[in-house]
Amino acid sequence: MGVSREPSAIRVEIGELVLDGFRVDPDRVSAAFERELSRLVEKHGVPLAADGALALEALSGLPPLPAGLSARRLGQELARAVHEGLSGHGEVTR
């Protein structure tokens, strides 16, 4: 039997999420962010980590987000931007 290349667990740790210029409840943004990022990782995986464990210091070069979003929508859009970074788009600092 071959060895499965699927990871047994995926852990994404975000040290700080700064929301300058947004008038939203950070707890609601965080909850929406976690739900959407979990959904995206479950559905698409983490392409940058396809060859094994990966630690990144920062993701940059991600798209700007409009300031008028609701907390839920902002969390979802942030998660999509981070997942894009984890998919190889944007600049990665290791």
Structure description:
- The chain has 94 residues and is mostly helical.
- It has one domain (26-93).
- Helices cover 37% and strands 6% of the residues.
- The chain is built from two helices and two strands; from the N terminus they run αβαβ.
- The chain has helices at 26-44, 71-86, and strands at residues 58-60, 91-93.
- The protein has a two-stranded antiparallel ribbon with strand order 1-2.
- Helix 1 (26-44) runs parallel beside helix 2 (71-86).
- It is globular.
- The chain starts with 25 loop residues before the first helix and ends with a strand.
- The relative contact order is 0.24.
- The mean pLDDT is 77.
Give the helix/strand class.
Answer: mainly alpha
Oligomer: single chain
**Strand fraction band?**
5-15%
What about the largest sheet? 2 strands, antiparallel
Distance between the termini: 34 Å
Mean pLDDT over all positions: 77
Order of helices and strands: HEHE
Helix share, percent: 25-40%
* Rg, alpha carbons: 14 Å
